[in-house]
Amino acid sequence: MRVTELIESSKKTAFSFEILPPLKGNSIQKVYKVIDKLWEFDPKYINITSHHSEFIYKTLPDGSYQKVNVRKHPGSVAIASAIQHKYGIPAVPHIICKGFTKEETEYALIDLNFLGVHDLLLLRGDVKMLELGIDPNAYHSYATELQEQVNNFNKGIALDGSTFEANETPFSYGMACYPEKHEEAPNLESDIFYAKEKVKNGAGYLVTQMFFDNQKYFAFVDRLRAEGITVPIIPGIKPVVFKNQLTVLPRIFRSDIPEAFACELRKCKDDTQAKEVGIEWSIQQCKELIGHGVPSLHFYTLMASDSVHRIAREIY
């Protein structure tokens, strides 16, 4: 079953989470350990984040520098296949624009199809300046362009325009949305426009950037429904685990922290106290969302799997 079918057929608010591939050289057992910890809550699918390669400059014996491409994490294709094979539920790799060329994306789609992984999350990814000397045309600039490539692949149209026998099982996918506006969007209306475009062109569901104010999510969903968008709009939940996230998360993700939450975090003397406050806020946040009938909750578990486990025990 596809992600949307799993969500819609769930008798209660569906549970899902995302994991980070282990650092290069580490065992996949670390990934399995996180999944095993959260398995009791019946996850409907598991997302695998994707990270682009990075460039470092290595000093040579003669004092000159050599630019070296470094990938710090295993590819999400391999991780997705391993998870899906071991646990028997859909693994949803992130396919991103920046850091992955259009050709690399096509190779990933070929491999994923071969391995039987047919659910994706299409994202723009980290917005970083490309290195000098790299052709920017080799990359997609926006997730909607990436979406077009996946749609063409589903039709049997390769990147170079040649045709091939289309997948017996086409890729289905979700995409991102932003209750508090994407940082580069001129206004919320622009974000609404692009959310509509994503759905019109094939996105089966939308998952939100992390947020901490449910009222902003409710207002955003109401706007999308008024515009005729009927696909599931899945709340993305991020438990706060460090005291400095009070300022870090709004700066990086442009997610406002309500004053009542911020006030409690400011009282914390250390990260241990901040983690407890974060868990309690997320529990109340999730209970309210479930009370409003959200179809699913999607948890961002980076550095927070223990917190997610405690939250899920309270709400599932």
How does the SSE layout of this entry go?
Elements lengths: L2 H7 L4 E6 L9 H10 L4 E6 L5 E6 L5 E6 L5 H12 L3 E6 L5 H14 L3 E5 L19 H12 L17 E6 L10 H13 L4 E4 L5 H13 L6 E2 L1 E2 L7 H9 L5 H9 L3 H21 L4 E5 L4 H11 L1
Helix pairs in contact: 10-11
Describe this structure in words.
The structure is a single chain. The chain has 316 residues and is an alpha/beta fold. The protein is 41% helix and 17% strand. It has a nine-stranded parallel β-sheet with strand order 9-8-7-6-5-2-1-11-10, with helices on both faces. Strands 3-4 form a two-stranded antiparallel sheet. β8, α7 and β9 form a beta-alpha-beta unit. It is globular.
Short note summarizing the structure:
This protein has eleven helices and eleven strands. It has helices at residues 3-9, 29-38, 76-87, 102-115, 143-154, 188-200, 214-226, 245-253, 259-267, 271-291, 305-315; strands at residues 14-19, 43-48, 54-59, 65-70, 91-96, 119-123, 172-177, 205-208, 233-234, 236-237, 296-300. β3 (54-59) and β4 form a beta hairpin.
Based on helices, strands and strand pairing, what is the structural class?
alpha/beta
| Range of helix content | 40-55%
Give a quick account of the main beta sheet: strands, pairing sense, barrel closure: 9 strands, parallel
Approximate strand percentage: 15-25%
C-alpha termini separation: 22 Å
Number of strands: 11
Descriptors for this entry?
316 residues, nine-stranded parallel beta sheet, alpha/beta, globular
